[in-house]
Amino acid sequence: MRTLRKIISIILIAIFALSLVSCKSMTKTSTQKPKPQTTPKVSYKDGTYTGAGPKWSEGSEDATVVIKNGKITSITLRRLDKNGKEINYDKWTGKKDPQTGKVYPNLKKFRVDMANEMIKKQTYNVDTIAGATETTTNWKIAVKNALEKAKK
Hints:
Helix content: 25-40%
Low-confidence stretches: 25-30
Strand order of the largest sheet: 1-2-3
Shape: elongated
Distance between the termini: 87 Å
């Protein structure tokens, strides 16, 4: 009985030791810090440019971008219905519509916040907004298309 306990103890210790060894990484870890992602510097011609996002089941998005002194100074993001008419943002406030019971994303706020972030970062490449992923992705595409027209 004692011998059996010793054998079981040795086996358990061996299994434990092997599991510790197998968990150890075989690759060296890098001591270099990752480089932050940067958006390449682009020169823009002064002017007002428009761009459109792709059409989808709920309509489309477009953007007007103003460039002054080579910098993005203003962006207007619009959500268009299926007929190409700009939506009424008072309906899109993130609250439940009393008539339909549907909760619309807060596009009234999102479009201002996203435009401000793009101006601040001087790029279309900003985060999309959860709850309005399709629209905010298409706004990014619309601004990108407008900026393509503004490139020197």
